[in-house]
Amino acid sequence: MSGDGDRDRSGEEDGRSGGRAASSEPTPGVPDVDIAARGELPRPPGTAAEWPVLGTETEYENPFFDAGYDRVERPDGTRGNYYWVDPVDGVTVVALAEGTEGEDGEVVLVEEYRPRQRRTFLTVPGGAIDAGEDVPTAARRELREESGYEADSVEYVRSYYPDGWVRHRRHVTVATGLSAGPQALDETEFIAVRTLPVEEAFETVLDSGAGWGLGPLLVAREAGYL
Fold first, then answer.
1. Alpha-carbon gap, residue 48 to 70, rounded angstroms
2. Is the separation of the CB atoms in 83 and 67 below 8 Å?
3. Phi, psi of 66, rounded to the nearest 5 degrees
4. Could you count the other beta carbons within 10 Å of the beta carbon of residue 201?
5. β 12-13/79-87 pair status
6. For a FRET experiment, which of 19, 35, 45, 167 has its CA 20 to 30 Å from that of 155?
7. CA angle 24, 28, 33 (to 5 degrees)
8. What integer pLDDT is reported at residue 18 of this predicted model?
9. Which contiguous run of DSSP H or E holds residue 212?
10. Phi, psi of 206 (to 5 degrees)
């Protein structure tokens, strides 16, 4: 995000105070736990649990996200504006297809051209959670729409913040017991489906540059699914 003012690269700016307060709602289907690690992360000495937010200003809104800043007081008493982008939470699906007899299973991946980056990426299925959906329901829908696969089982694994600027969380699920079917793509989506062995999937996603696809694979591996 670009903008005027005395701001460092973390999104901090000294400037005017804001208006309405921000709010965050829990995502259905996600346990009420610290999503950053196993328990709370240690805090630097001398810092409060949460820096006081003096005001919030939303400067831009569209159907996909809001953008704005919080006016925050730091532990030393100085104040600054911290900019953010606030889309809805997203879900990702690490879908595991059974291998043929004598072969290991494979990971379902989707290949899609991204106009923002002007290149094609290979990643795991996923997308925004619709209003009223819980995480497993959103995962099943995204998997079916983007890849055509239906899953007998969808398990929630973990959530994380994918970017320091962006407020939304990415919820990782693992889908098993897959059966193939037709895709149900939106009219603006042009997606090819591929299945690759686990190690090749890691390498291919990494080579494509899709960090948003690599994160869920790493989470699933850490949890013992891959």
1. 17
2. yes
3. -105, 155
4. 23
5. antiparallel
6. 167
7. 70
8. 35
9. helix 211-222
10. -65, -45
